[in-house]
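Predicting holo structure, zinc ion bound.
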Amino acid sequence: MVHKVQGVVARSKGAPVTLETILVPDPGPGEALVDILTSGVCHTDLHYQQGGISDDFPFLLGHEATGVVSAVGPDVTEVAPGDRVILNWRAVCGECRACRRGKPEYCFNTHNATQKMTLEDGTELSPALGIGAFIEKTLVAAGQCTKVDPEADAAAVGLLGCGVMAGLGAAINTGKVSRGDSVAVIGCGGVGTAAIAGAALAGATTIIAVDIDAKKLERARTLGATHVVDSSTADPVEAIQALTGGFGADVVIDAVGRPETYRQAFYARDLAGTVVLVGVPTPEMTLELPLLDVFGRGGSLKSSWYGDCLPSRDFPMLVSLYRQGRLDLDAFVSERIGIHQIEEAFAKMQQGAVLRSVVEL
Ligand SMILES: NC(=O)c1ccc[n+]([C@@H]2O[C@H](COP(=O)([O-])OP(=O)(O)OC[C@H]3O[C@@H](n4cnc5c(N)ncnc54)[C@H](O)[C@@H]3O)[C@@H](O)[C@H]2O)c1
Ligand SMILES: [Zn+2]
Ligand SMILES: [Zn+2]
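Done. Tokens:
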């Protein structure tokens, strides 16, 4: 059977998104059909709409979602109809060179649905991050469904599906922040603010939020920042050094992803410290650093893809911390909107007015 549902599509580069009738097939082998409850609006959705990720238009947008499994393919055992799930974009294969070496968080062959969702005229859609969740029902690989506690607020925990996990994981998994560390986070949008929350959760004692927007800094304080630096007026390297005994932070997380912020992160860390790049640069960006400084400052320069998360390990654990009141995911839900309001949500994101707008379906 083919399901006819409404979903949000970016038809061509830069064109406003449209609500379209979409045909979703029943799940085949290895696939699951999911009724979407909520889906956050992420910067990556905007990147897709602007043509910044690939030219495979039309895209079915949305990917930070909570849903309920409505049907599974014949061989699927890991989830069943009725299960409450968060969708992930890291359904690990178990067989690639990373998985075989016991590092599935780097899986190089992650799974998506094999069948295509289409427009009514048969045009195949490219689902954002292999998910496509601004839609009433979506088709994914069964491994993209991570079963979680159904009592948790769908809008809040669904954000673990992308940006909030990327930030929390940049601190906890990639940066390996631990008790007593000093941490600086450059860029306090959804991802950077989650990195701040992650650093707080891991026991960092000095957490410095850096942004060029004073509003972001105020919010960062409420999620665990112990100090804030407005880098539109102050030199962030000097400010971070001053707040860390003159040395620099143990871990500096760049949640913007520009050459200038990376350079700030590089010089604002202590000797033998760690830089984590989680913000995504654009293809034309390049970086020049004295090689002697790269050597002489030691430590490690890391990038964080999706917070180096393993959804099956990290999502239920983080949902549990949220349910216990130890991780404030509600603070990331700035507003709840309808499926018609994606363009408005993009505008608010660009004005810096929200951490996350979450679509309720
Ligand atoms: N690595 C991953 O797996 C992953 C996953 C999701 C998102 N991301 C990326 O993370 C980045 C941040 O995403 P977001 O949703 O938080 O975006 P956002 O637009 O909500 O936040 C960006 C923040 O950076 C600040 N900023 C901009 N320029 C700055 C500068 N020069 N110095 C200091 N602060 C500056 C802005 O004021 C804003 O607060 C994006 O590049 C996004 O694509 C990465
Ligand atoms: Zn793999
Ligand atoms: Zn995202």
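The pocket of nicotinamide-adenine-dinucleotide (ligand 1) is lined by residues 43-44, 162-163, 166, 186-192, 210-213, 216, 231, 255-258, 260-261, 278-280, 304-306, 352 (CB under 6 Å).
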